[in-house]
Structure to design on (722 residues):
């Protein structure tokens, strides 16, 4: 179609931008209602025909329109539903004729069925209480926002407060969450002096006995630390221990690598040595539980259950002067329940050898050299912390390394002797204040927080591990919402061209990680759709060609859509279903028209940006797929990684910890692989004001009756030991 053949009225555009958006939104709602009526028919007809044919009906023609089926009652119900929900959609009865393959309704039904068969998972998503509540709140808010735009030409956020006041509420909540994150400990440590062997007190430790045996030994060797220049505690025996150690390797992916320039140390495996030192004898594990695995007390059933830490001895390591060291690395967890490591430094004199542990720009320095002759010193930290051992310049730095695992006591529903009460936390009081304010999120809303710590949320066991393996500030945040009776869940969020969520300048959210991966860039070519929308705004009508010749025919507004993400399967409830369709529906060309307004003839490809958040329907395990192309389409992504497209989530923190979501083939001049990434996030569904209050007008401090389900820079897997 040549632009110059269609003159522009001299008085300027037919509609202002506000009027144009109002018309588009009105048509958008009508189309969603019509498609919801059609979906109800298609699902009912499909189920009826499946019973008769006992086969997958997705492989057959549109239900009710092949030679073997009629579905007359369902067809009549379809026409009744359309007349009830969109009575003025079709101009005449001919447009609604179901026996005419060329009628507008019949073409719409066939088109809808083709979308189903190309992506059947869109309509067969498993529903859970959390997912239902999440989609319900966001779809109602989406409709409310569109209705306001349609009526007034203005936009409205999810709160009844003035925009500035609500933004300040969100900023303050973000500040408290980030403060909780910065104050939450990712490492802890302590010192135990060497003293008498006193079983009544664990404030001091008896001298440490080490026993080891190599393949050539007929009996075990024994060394007592600290050295006392006796038969079992002398420099000669110490050197024998050092000499009997084998070179220590480190993990790189699935391989053990020996590189003395990266790690210079000796090691003994657990089948080669034993010791009389046990961390549990000195309250070390209780301290670690209190600081790294805080127990959260609520007045209700504790959905997190009672969690304990156990320590499993992993290695004995010796770093000797003048060159013992271990450069910066992040440990590889050895099991799904491992959350960290415990390093115990035995009493043996050395210099240098500081242990530096880092997380989110913070660093903890464990400098053990000055007290190395007379104390046992220890440090514990999370598995995703970067750490290093600086060069040991003199002596021998001898350590026992333990893997820390989280366990759950069977049959305990309430936490005994709680350490932390969420009611004492500033975050708890602020969130409770939000829930008690009828002007904040009066109609409900959804708050999103990306996890501060890395979790293997793309592992096969992720749905069992989360939320129970949450730690630090993530555990506090999850527990505060849970203790206030709020639906909360750990979910995966998929990036789109490196952006996880829409940019929000008011809250300072960029939607991307600080150190991103090499992302797949996605481009949409909606040039014709954009030009048609622009033409309608200028002229008040569209034009289409019937065949390949003759003058164009004027039509009303006809929108092209992209339905993104899965849809909850409430097919028999049309009022609910059309709102969920609205949630994932984008008008082709509209974003481009708003971002690049006016005549821009050279504009063709649009670098697609997220208009909502792509939230996985569950925690999907990582996989590889042979489906793909030069640019993997959204339909192809939905087929392998089902997700909801959710505009309207209020994101208060930036994405942080990435994991590989899936890898797929790409086809260009040569075949290659591309990877999409996801981050774990905590999502809280805030109900409307009238649901937040109980009969006495107080915030109901009880866990919701729904699911207590759980889950990203990419986890680095470089080293396994210390």
């Amino acid at each position: 179609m040549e632009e110059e053949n269609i003159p522009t009225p001299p008085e300027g555009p037919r509609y202002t931008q506000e009027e144009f958006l109002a018309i588009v939104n009105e048509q958008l709602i009508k189309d969603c209602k019509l498609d919801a009526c059609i979906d109800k028919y298609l699902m009912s007809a499909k189920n009826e025909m499946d019973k008769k044919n006992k086969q997958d009906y997705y492989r057959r023609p549109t239900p009710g329109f092949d030679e073997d089926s009629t579905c007359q009652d369902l067809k009549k119900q379809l026409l009744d539903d359309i007349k009830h929900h969109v009575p003025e959609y079709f101009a005449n009865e001919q447009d609604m004729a179901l026996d005419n393959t060329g009628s507008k309704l019949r073409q719409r039904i066939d088109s809808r069925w083709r979308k189903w068969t190309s992506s059947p998972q869109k309509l067969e998503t498993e529903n859970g209480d959390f997912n239902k509540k999440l989609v319900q709140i966001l779809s109602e808010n989406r409709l409310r926002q569109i209705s306001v735009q349609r009526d007034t030409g203005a936009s409205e956020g999810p709160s009844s407060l003035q925009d500035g006041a609500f933004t300040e509420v969100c900023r303050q909540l973000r500040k408290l969450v980030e403060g909780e994150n910065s104050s939450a400990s990712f490492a802890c440590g302590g010192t135990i002096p060497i003293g008498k062997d006193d079983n009544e007190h664990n404030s001091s430790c008896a001298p440490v006995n080490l026993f080891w045996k190599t393949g050539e030994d007929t009996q075990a060797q024994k060394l007592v630390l600290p050295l006392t220049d006796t038969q079992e505690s002398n420099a000669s025996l110490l050197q024998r221990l050092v000499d009997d150690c084998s070179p220590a390797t480190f993990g790189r992916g699935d391989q053990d690598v020996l590189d003395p320039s990266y790690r210079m140390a000796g090691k003994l495996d657990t089948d080669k040595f034993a010791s009389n030192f046990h961390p549990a004898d000195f309250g070390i594990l209780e301290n670690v539980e209190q600081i790294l695995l805080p127990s959260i007390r609520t007045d209700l059933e504790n959905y997190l259950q009672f969690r304990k830490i156990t320590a499993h001895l992993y290695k004995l390591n010796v770093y000797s002067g003048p060159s013992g060291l271990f450069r910066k690395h992040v440990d590889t967890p050895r099991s799904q329940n491992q959350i960290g490591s415990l390093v115990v430094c035995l009493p043996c004199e050395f210099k240098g050898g500081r242990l530096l542990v880092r997380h989110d720009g913070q660093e903890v320095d464990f400098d053990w050299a000055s007290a190395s002759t007379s104390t046992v010193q220890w440090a514990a930290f999370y598995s995703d912390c970067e750490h290093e051992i600086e060069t040991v310049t003199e002596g021998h730095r001898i350590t026992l390394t333990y893997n820390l695992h989280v366990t759950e006591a069977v049959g305990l529903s309430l936490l005994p002797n709680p350490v932390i009460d969420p009611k004492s936390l500033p975050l708890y009081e602020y969130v409770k204040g939000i829930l008690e304010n009828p002007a904040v999120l009066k109609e409900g809303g959804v708050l999103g927080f990306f996890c501060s710590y890395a979790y293997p949320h793309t592992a096969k066991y992720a749905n069992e591990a989360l939320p129970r393996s949450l730690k630090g500030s993530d555990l506090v945040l999850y527990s505060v919402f849970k203790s206030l009776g709020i639906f909360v869940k750990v979910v995966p969020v998929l990036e789109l061209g490196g952006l996880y969520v829409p940019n929000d300048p008011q809250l300072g959210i960029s939607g991307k990680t600080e150190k991103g991966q090499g992302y797949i860039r996605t481009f949409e070519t909606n040039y014709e759709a954009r030009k048609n929308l622009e033409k309608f705004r200028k002229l008040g009508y569209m034009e289409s060609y019937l065949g390949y010749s003759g003058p164009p025919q004027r039509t009303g507004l006809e929108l092209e859509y992209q339905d993104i993400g899965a849809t909850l399967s409430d097919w028999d409830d049309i009022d609910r279903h059309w709102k969920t369709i609205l949630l994932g529906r984008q008008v082709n060309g509209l974003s481009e028209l708003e971002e690049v307004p006016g005549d821009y003839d050279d504009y063709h490809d649009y670098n697609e940006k997220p208009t909502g958040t792509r939230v996985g329907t569950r925690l999907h395990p990582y996989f590889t797929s042979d489906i793909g192309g030069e640019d993997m389409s959204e339909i192809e992504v939905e087929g392998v990684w089902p997700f909801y497209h959710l505009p309207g989530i209020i994101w208060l923190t930036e994405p942080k910890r990435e994991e590989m979501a899936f890898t797929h083939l790409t086809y260009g001049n040569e075949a290659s692989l591309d990877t999409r990434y996801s981050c774990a996030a905590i999502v809280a569904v805030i109900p409307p004001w009238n649901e937040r209050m109980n009969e006495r007008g107080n915030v109901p401090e009880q866990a919701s009756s729904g699911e207590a389900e759980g889950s990203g820079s990419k986890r680095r897997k470089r080293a396994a030991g210390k």
Q: What stands out?
A: The chain has three domains: 1-138+526-607, 186-292+307-408, 418-522+609-692. The domain at 186-292+307-408 is CATH 2.60.120 (Jelly Rolls). Residues 85 and 501 are 33 Å apart (CA to CA). The chain is about 25% helix and 25% strand.
